[in-house]
Amino acid sequence: MPRRDDLDSILLIGSGPIVIGQACEFDYSGTQACRVLREEGYRVILANSNPATIMTDPDFADVTYVEPLDAATLTRIIERERPDALLPTLGGQTALNLAMDLVELGVLDRYGVELIGANAEAIATAEDRERFKEAMVGIGLDVPASGTAHTIEEARAVVADIGLPVIIRPAYILGGKGTGIASTPEEFERVATAGLDASPITEILIESSIAGWKEFEVEVMRDRADNCVIVCSIENVDPMGVHTGDSITVAPIQTLTDVEYQKMRDAAFACMRRVGVETGGSNVQFAIDPTNGDMVIIEMNPRVSRSSALASKATGFPIAKIAAKLAVGYTLDEIPNDITKATPASFEPTIDYVVTKVPRWAFEKFPETPSLLGTQMQAVGEVMAIGRTFCESVQKALRSLELGRLGLNADPGETATDDLSDADLLAAAAVGTPDRLFQLEAALRRGMSVDEVAAATKVDPWFLDQLSRITEERAHLERVGFEHMTRRDWRRAKRLGFADAQLAYLWGLDEAAVRAARVEAGVIPTYKTVDTCGAEFAADTPYHYSTYEDSTEVAADPRGKVIILGSGPNRIGQGIEFDYCCVHASFALHDAGYATVMVNCNPETVSTDYDTSDRLYFEPVTLEDVANVIDAEQAASPPGTPGVVGVIVALGGQTPLKLAGQLPADLVLGTSPASIDAAEDREHWNALCTKLEIPQPAGGTATNIDEARAIVAGISYPALVRPSYVLGGRAMEIVYDDEHLASAIEELASFGAIGADGGIAPDRPVLIDEFLEDATEVDVDALRDRTGAFLIGGVMEHVEEAGVHSGDSACAIPPYSLGDGTVQVIEEYTAKIADALGVEGLINVQYAVQHRDSGDEVFVIEANPRASRTVPFVAKATGVPLAKVATRVMAGATLAELRDEGLLTDPVTGYVAVKEAVLPFNRFPGADRVLGPEMHSTGEVMGVDTSFGIAFAKSQIAAGDPLPDAGCVFISLADRDKNIGVTAAAQFAGLGFRIAATAGTAAALRAAGVPVAVEVAKLGEEGGPHAVELIEAGEVQLVVNSPRGRGPRADGDYIRSAAGVAHIPILTTAAAALAAARGMTEWSSRELVVRNLQEIHAP
Amino acid sequence: MNDVYESLLVLSDGTSFEGEAVGAVPDGGIAGGEVVFNTVLSGYQEVLTDPSYAGQIVTFTYPHIGNYGTNADDDESRRPFARGVIVRELSRRMSNWRATESLDAFLERRGVPGIAGVDTRRLTRHIRDAGSLPGVFGIVDDRFDGHVSESALREAAAIEPGTDGLDLVAEVTTQQPYVVAATGAGTRRIVAYDFGIKSTILTNLTRLGTVEVVPASTPAAEVLAREPDGVFLSNGPGDPERTGLVDTVAGLLGELPVFGICLGHQLMGLALGGRITKLPFGHHGGNHPVKNLTTGIIEITSQNHSFAIAEGSLTRAEVTHVNLNDGVIEGIRSSDAPAFSVQHHPEAGPGPRDSAYLFDDFEHLMKGNAA
Ligand SMILES: Nc1ncnc2c1ncn2[C@@H]1O[C@H](COP(=O)(O)OP(=O)(O)O)[C@@H](O)[C@H]1O
Ligand SMILES: Nc1ncnc2c1ncn2[C@@H]1O[C@H](COP(=O)(O)OP(=O)(O)O)[C@@H](O)[C@H]1O
Ligand SMILES: [Mg+2]
Ligand SMILES: [Mg+2]
Questions:
Q1: What contacts A646, CB < 8 A, 6 or more positions away?
Q2: Which pLDDT belongs to residue A1044?
Q3: What is the pLDDT, as a whole number, of residue A725?
Q4: Whose CA is closest to atom 2 on ligand 1?
Q5: Of all residues in chain A, what percent are helix, strand and coil, respectively (each to 5)?
Q6: Mean pLDDT calculated for residue range B67-92
Q7: Where does A82-128 have alpha helices with state H?
């Protein structure tokens, strides 16, 4: 069955901002889908509010709407574009839920839009857990005993029936939000209530818990002709009870006989057919009782999922791309297998290596939340590693995480378990936490038996035995000693995945010495190919991984090669924005005639798609692994050819940047490692600013508390304390007094020098600055080429004032309140700094502007001569392909040349673009929602329109907290915020809102003639209701609450979490309140207009 | 680690591979046979006990073999027939609720020598390019008494015949006829020729009725005299043209319903006027797409054959199934007789069960014939 010709245009919905449980894997799948559908000649209409995605680049779709993903906006887009079909299965749960809304609202019927990929019936059957279970029982599959409830009373009835322990799971949610296991009646009450709240249709499934069983996943594809194939099978190392997204998982399944595997395969197909997913990819989860093989089905996701991205990278079978082709009518046998070219896609990939995925968490940023893993996903990112054995792949994965760990222990980090008694260690390992794997190895190293550990932790003995091979090898290496290593010894160690750095640690040597001796012994990595077929057919796609075998498969290539270092796992502070930059670099350099070589280890990204670059090395981004790739590529360059002409380190965030100094300096393209350091090195930076006569906040560096005190003596409190070489304001704090300063320094010291980032040590001084209060923060992205030509990419005025991390604050292009004079000063400063640092490529500079009667005073906060988080936003807002231009500049082109070439264009005018951050607080119970200098957001959205107010309002809707149009605003402000607050309040009142305020704020408002309807008492005090009561009673529609300093858990803290739970928008700064007031005012007077980037960028 | 002995694999073209000894010690220190590869991710026990592997040394492309041990139920025949096994990693710890013996112990007890630690991907690519070829391996570690020299291995490799000229069917077939009782409501009487029959095939046939298994040498007349409802031609090792069984099959066609699998399929092809070709490196895996030309549906199939019916060579049969990877004929139906056969393995064991319907087709054929 060929392509459907009855369709012309297809609407694709993206997954919106990066949130926990829904990360850039959906940019990967969406991007693939856009490509395919356009190749097939369809008109692609894309809607996605996330400006940091590749898919929202104007050239990936015919029309691209960076607009809020809600039914109202989508309806407007459909009204305007009249698509023939809607493809909802590639934008995660967001797209699926939106599609369902549009069906229920009758929008699709009204405009004759056909749902392709999965129909409403199928989606409902899979997503509604009750219906799903009935369906599965109907086809003879087992499911855990369960019942559904819509109220807490119903819930109690169910549990009376099936008994504890139970797991509670809301319908229509992703990433296990609101899911949990309850073993006691108390736990049950709590989890059930949270679950009902989390479900958009207040429905929960209560299920008897089978925590401890083995957990598996299979990725299924089905076409219109009912052909089904399994693309990949996955086994979880963590048993049932830890969300798959938080589990260490391995492909393929390791511990099932073929008989059991085929049973699972048949069940997966039966499930797919019963649910009725007509075409595309789905993911089916199973659990097996390790004692008797009983198998139950857990769930199926009728769409491309996080696991699909993993499965695609693990096998080389591009699920999203093929799902898109199936959706438009092709059958699997009509689609060629990209990798072999010779064979069709209607087969089941087989692999000859082991893939391990390890999640990366962000608990360190939410100290109030215990770092426990359960049925609700907490991971913010993940790494994948490929090795010929499990040992090799798991060690590669662990060093890919960039948590300062070199592998499975055998590194300084291993001391963490030293003080635990055997019993405590085993108890710790029995609970799912980020440290479990390291604890398991430690337990085995202490001589506990595999069976003992397996019994306590429910981790399968096969995996534990593999870990113990690493343990035994370590002992062997220590016994043999560096001097007596034979070729076979080196080879065995490397085959078990040991990094040179681990060996160096074991022998007390430095890494370079180990590497030299190993190479001397003739033991160097070979590169094998991911080819979907276990080498049965010739592969023509250079998708490689390293391993220590006999023969290597890297093909010779005469072109000059540029190696692009990716940004590793997503984490808070370093996310999709950097992958965007790396991918653009690859595209730009390929177009310029280079062979591009990507090195990265993040399976969710577009950068690790095998057809993004000329060559892909799925490898950890560590010194050893990168140096190996450079050697391999040099070796694969025929004599007389340019070979590796450069390495790009400036686009992948801190990950590659950390390596810059250690790579051959002549290979680092663009700004030299020296000047990158210069910008980070405080002394040097101060000197530079003084020389350039650019004011900066007073301050200095300290390596201990006494030095810190000395500095603060010079400047006044509040002061800002922050470690050097960190991203995302890691461990940054505003301190208001001596005692607070001491505690901050203490905390940093506790990281030790080996902390993933931050820490305090003689070689890692802490920076202490005067904290600039009430200052407007401004971000600038700019470009400078080797001839000194300079270009401003964008000047972004932040909504929240300085003190809120740039990554967490909303910001606007162009500045919406700063005077032209101030902007000009900022641009001049930026140019001077770029010159002084000899920047070749991108630079990001941050400023704080204090408004004095004498006029604005501009302070520079920091400069980073590298790609920043805001590059994609700037590109979308201005229409200038900043990352591509920067890459070419790094490779030696001048701005003038690029202008002539047509790559560098003029920025668009007449629009305001607002970026808003999206925060993960509801995932972290107990975490205070206050914004500060440490970044907490996982993603961002963009709102664009002709005025700041509307653009801001759009950004709020897109971020999921639409501003109310009527009701009551609760206001409680710190004194320093009161004047701005009053202005905002006046406008709220003007819009007909009732105002509730705390005593102090109320007084200030009344004094300024703003009516206050309700005066709110302090918590626990008499005199009127208090805020939490009002919020819980649903009498408040918007909360404006700026924190008063730090100290004991203040009222505001409770107020903010109450609002969070009630899903009421919270503005924690007066500036944001003012922006909101403007937005609501304009919103009330104008109706929503949607615009696509193509028309916005049109000259 | 000192009980690990260095082993060496040498192919007839002189290519060699380092490894470590596992399983049984080869008789005379040297194991030899035709080196083939199999790409299944699970099912090593079924593969090693499949009589079709007689005379062959099996390389598993998936690196971790032995993870779930072995058990009494998953054998495909009375003993392993493979001459040896080549793996990247042999698990020392098994984990599965059904496991009763580790693969290493199983190989040792069943007398199958093995070599582990081999760059099996390099070997597979070599076979893919050079074609499957004879090879030998043995323990070269001088710490092991009874070790062999590298030169001895090289000489042995140069003269190793692999499977050429062997009548392997005679080696694997049952000596005596035997009866397997029906397991279901099925009332058919089926005679199954054992050319190296797999137990999963018997499991599928006994659902249809009672199965009388007879030696390969049983004359057609004798089988017809038993007046069964249908005859089954099993899988088996080696070159069909060397078995001298074509006439037997020819003697059955047209007389009563016949169903053949793998070698049985090739023999039917020969009997229906086809020719046989040897594939460069055969089909050995569990993931090959086969298109059923009648329904248009694609079946993911279990495959294990080095020979195939030559395209366009059939005179008295039509092609019913083709392999989508390389167009090889996977299934045929006689134009005049109630007979059909497939090259792949509908019984799976190991592999997908997408083609299991073919046994029902056999039942229909017998029913139609009875009516
Ligand atoms: N009955 C159960 N008992 C114990 N753990 C369970 C049970 N059902 C699910 N889980 C755990 O909860 C996790 C999330 O459940 P799942 O149905 O996959 O929800 P989601 O839609 O969030 O993926 C699973 O990965 C599994 O580890
Ligand atoms: N001296 C200061 N006064 C006020 N706010 C500051 C000062 N220095 C930094 N900040 C705030 O802290 C945030 C993080 O600081 P920054 O140096 O940008 O860290 P990062 O390198 O993680 O971006 C900034 O975005 C800004 O809001
Ligand atoms: Mg799940
Ligand atoms: Mg910053």
A1: A562, A563, A667, A668, A669, A890, A891
A2: 63
A3: 65
A4: A209
A5: 40, 20, 40
A6: 96
A7: 92-104, 107-110, 120-127
Which of B17, B97, B121 has the CB atom closest to A528's CB atom? B121
pLDDT tens figures, B19-66:
999 999 999 999 999 999 999 999 999 999 999 999 999 999 999 999
Query: What's the burial of A976, exposed, middle or buried (CB within 10 Å: 0-12/13-18/19+)?
Result: middle
Which residues contact residue A1024 at a Cβ distance below 8 angstroms, ignoring those fewer than 6 apart? Answer: A1014, A1015, A1016, A1017
pLDDT of residue A1048: 38
Tell which phi-psi region holds residue B309, choosing left (phi > 0), alpha (psi between -120 and 50) or beta: beta
**Contact partners, residue A277, CB within 8 Å, separation at least 6:** A117, A118, A122, A126, A222, A302
Count of residues for chain B?
Answer: 371
DSSP E strands, B144-267: 178-180, 188-194, 209-215, 230-233, 258-261
Strands A644-648 and A719-723: what pairing? unpaired
Q: Which pair of tokens denotes residue A635?
A: 């070796």
Closest approach atom of ligand 1 to CA A173 = 21
Q: How far apart are CA A171 and CA A235, in angstroms?
A: 25
Residue A173: its pLDDT value, please?
67
Which DSSP state fits A594?
A: P
Catalytic center residues of B: 262, 345, 347
Pocket test for ligand 2, best of A806, A811, A845, A1068 (most atoms within 8 A of CB): A806
Q: Which residues contact A340 (CB under 8 A, 6 or more apart)?
A: A531, A532, A533, A537, A538, A539, A540
Residue A137 reports pLDDT greater than 80: yes
Q: Is A499 exposed, middle or buried (0-12, 13-18, 19+ CB in 10 A)?
A: buried
Please report residues of B whose CB lies closer than 8 A to that of A449.
none
The span from the CA of A984 to the CA of A980, in Å, is 6
Residues flanking ligand 1, CB < 6 Å: A 144, 167, 169, 175-176, 179, 207, 209-211, 215, 240-244, 285, 298-299, 375
CB atoms within 10 A of CB A1031: 25
Q: What is the DSSP string of A818-850?
A: S-HHHHHHHHHHHHHHHHHTT--EEEEEEEEEE
Question: From edge to edge, which strands make up the β-sheet containing A790-801?
Answer: A855-864, A841-852, A775-784, A790-801, A811-813, A912-918, A939-945
Task: Determine how many CB atoms are found less than 10 A away from the CB of residue A960.
Answer: 19
Measured between alpha carbons, how far is A633 from A322 in angstroms, rounded to an integer? 31
What is the C-alpha to C-alpha distance for residues A355 and A396, in angstroms, rounded to an integer?
A: 10
